[in-house]
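Propose amino acids for all 242 sites.
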C-alpha cells in the first residue's frame, strides 16, 4: 500500500485539534502527576511534556525555513534537544501547560505563513533525512497523538481517531519496508484490507494480522498488543523502536 500524500493545510488543522485534546488531558493531571513515570523508559511525564513542546518549536523552525527560504535547522546543535528536555522536565504542571500552549501557537503561526509554493521546500530533519515541508504538519500530528498515549493517563491506541490510525499505520509500515535487520513480516490490516511486507527479505517469514489500531499499537511499540494473529502460530517478532 502506498503512503497517503500529505495535505499540509488540513494536517495543520488536525494538529490544532489533537493539541487541544492533548492539553485538556494534561490539564486534568494532579499537580504532582508530571513527576510520575511516562510509558517511555527513563522519562517522567515532565520529560515527555517538555519534549512535545520543544518538538513543536523544532518543527516550526522547519516551517519557517519553508516560509522564508532561509535554512533554519530544527535544533541549534546536536545536544540542545536533550539538554532542553532535561532542564524542563521538573517544572510545575502550570508551567508545562503554558509551554505546550505557547509552542503550539508558534507552530500554528509558522504553518500559516508558508506560501503554497513553500510546501515543496526540502528541509532536513534532526536525523539528517531530507523531506518536503509538506510532511511537517503530519509529523507533528503523529508526535501529538502517539505521545498522548505515552503519557499513560487514559488514552491508548484504541482511542486514536480512525483516519489518523489508518494513515499512521501505513506511514510506519512503509518506513519498515526494505528495512535491514528485522524479521520479514507480512502485515495485514483486517479492517481496511491493506497489507505491507516489512523487512528486507524477498519473502515474509510470517504474517501478522489485526484491525487497524491493534496493528498500529504493535508496529509503533505501544502495547498491549491485543487481537493480533500470527501465522504460522508463534511469538510476535521484535520490531525496532521508533
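Proposal:
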Amino acid at each position: 500500500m502506498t503512503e497517503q500524500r500529505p495535505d499540509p493545510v488540513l494536517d495543520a488543522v488536525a494538529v490544532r485539534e489533537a493539541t487541544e485534546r492533548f492539553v485538556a488531558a494534561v490539564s486534568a493531571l494532579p499537580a504532582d502527576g508530571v513527576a510520575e513515570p511516562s510509558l517511555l523508559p527513563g522519562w517522567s511525564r515532565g520529560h515527555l511534556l517538555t519534549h512535545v513542546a520543544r518538538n513543536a518549536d523544532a518543527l516550526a523552525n522547519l516551517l519557517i525555513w519553508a516560509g522564508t527560504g532561509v535554512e533554519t535547522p530544527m535544533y541549534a546543535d546536536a545536544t540542545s534537544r536533550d539538554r532542553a528536555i532535561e532542564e524542563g522536565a521538573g517544572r510545575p504542571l502550570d508551567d508545562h501547560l503554558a509551554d505546550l500552549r505557547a509552542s503550539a501557537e508558534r507552530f500554528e503561526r509558522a504553518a500559516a505563513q508558508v506560501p503554497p509554493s513553500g510546501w515543496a521546500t526540502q528541509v532536513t530533519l534532526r536525523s539528517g533525512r531530507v523531506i518536503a515541508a509538506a510532511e511537517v504538519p503530519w509529523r507533528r500530528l503523529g508526535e501529538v497523538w502517539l505521545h498522548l498515549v505515552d503519557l499513560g493517563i487514559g488514552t491508548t491506541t484504541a482511542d486514536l481517531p480512525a483516519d489518523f490510525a489508518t494513515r499512521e499505520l501505513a506511514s510506519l509500515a512503509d518506513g519498515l519496508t526494505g528495512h535491514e535487520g528485522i524479521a520479514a513480516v507480512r502485515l495485514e490490516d483486517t479492517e481496511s484490507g491493506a497489507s505491507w511486507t516489512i523487512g528486507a527479505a524477498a519473502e515474509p517469514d510470517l504474517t501478522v494480522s489485526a484491525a487497524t489500531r491493534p496493528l498500529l499499537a504493535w508496529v509503533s511499540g505501544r502495547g498491549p498488543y491485543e487481537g493480533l494473529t500470527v501465522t504460522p502460530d508463534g511469538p510476535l517478532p521484535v520490531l525496532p523502536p521508533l
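Residues 75 and 180 are 29 Å apart (CA to CA). The chain has two domains: 8-155, 162-231.
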